[in-house]
Amino acid sequence: xxxxxxxxxxxxxxxxxxxxxxxxxxxxxxxxxxxxxxxxxxxxxxxxxxxxxxxxxxxxxxxxxxxxxxxxxxxxxxxxxxxxxxxxxxxxxxxxxxxxxxxxxxxxxxxxxxxxxxxxxxxx
Length: 124
Fold this sequence. Notes:
Blueprint: H1 11-35, H2 42-51, E1 58-62, E2 65-72, E3 75-81, E4 87-91, H3 101-110
Antiparallel strand pairs: 1-2, 2-3, 3-4
């Protein structure tokens, strides 16, 4: 048998190839993570359908279970469920104008250094 033959390339030729491969893998990984909705367990899907009939959600896995993101009347909601289908909470942002004066007064009394801000545009 002869000696093994090693093919060598200069580092100047290898680095662009590795950089391109790394960038391609990173872009594909980020794209799949940010846009892909997973399918939650049947118990979660059934609990969501019972609570929000005729509503479609995009699902994300969270440490506590699953989060379904959906829209109603142009407002984004996040419904959170344990893996066994137990509803945990539903969240959505509200503007300061949606609180009663009694709530605003109480918050300002309890947290005088805090202020209400509204970061939403006029388009919602």
